[in-house]
Structure formats: C-alpha cells, structure tokens
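Blinded run. Sample ID left blank on purpose so nobody reads anything into the name before looking at the predicted structure. Input follows.
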Amino acid sequence: MALSLKTAIATYPHTAALKDGSVKPSGIDLEFVEVSPIIGAFRRMVRTLEFDVCEMAITTYLCARANGKEFTAIPVFPVRAWHHGATSYNTKSGVEKPSDLTGKRVGVRAYTVTTGVWARGILASEYGVDWDKTTLVIADEEHVAEYKAPST
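Blinded prediction complete.
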C-alpha cells in the first residue's frame, strides 16, 4: 500500500510531469490540491497544517518556524525569482531614483512577503533607502497569524 500525501504545489513546466502523473514517485501517491494562486496554500498550511507537502515561500516558512509551527522544509525550490523588478511607483510622487523612497509611504502586501523582504533589502543595500525613516503601508494580513510586524 502506497503512502498517500495531500500536496499543494503550483503547476510549472518543471512540476507538470509530477502533477499529470507521467512521473510518479515509487511507493507514494500524491493527492494534488489545486490552489491558485499558490500563495493561498501558504496561509492554509501555516495556520491549519492542511497539507502533507506544500510549496511555501522561504520567509513564510522562517516566520512559521520562529512562531512554533512544527513542520520541516526540504531544500527544493520550485520557483527562484529575480526580485529587482518588484517595485513600482507613482510617477507624480516626486520619486526620481530609488533612494527618494526614504521618507515616503511605501505599500507592501504584507511585511513578511518574500518579494517585499528582498525588495526592501535590495533598496536599502544597493540604493540607500532608509527604512527607519519610511512608512510601510501594509495591505494584507500575514500568512503566520502569530507574527507581529514592527510598527511602520
């Protein structure tokens, strides 16, 4: 009898064969649950442990572990994104270069969203944005309910 694992991963070119069954792990039945967009599965996993296997952003995983969630990451990265293009701005805001964001109000979906974390790091280290002098406007709740973002 095969081990059955409830699994949430997105369909990418490199996961399609696994999801369509043309590649099958020996002794394991993967029961795929479609969650679109896949980030919806992150919150479900960290809040209710709904899946046996779940794709998850690294910052969601790290926040979950820091807040006592008992699951383990494996070193498989279905998506590796280049985060330098993750920022857009209002052309009427007076921002002419990235460092001009210092002192402005900057929107982000949630404080711990991986792309936002990378973008803030890149903007600080490569362009001198001072996040201590900048107001972050959060648009959504964190995946990990117990996480409390710093005051922004």
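Unblinding after everyone has recorded impressions. The CA atoms of residues 110 and 142 lie 6 Å apart.
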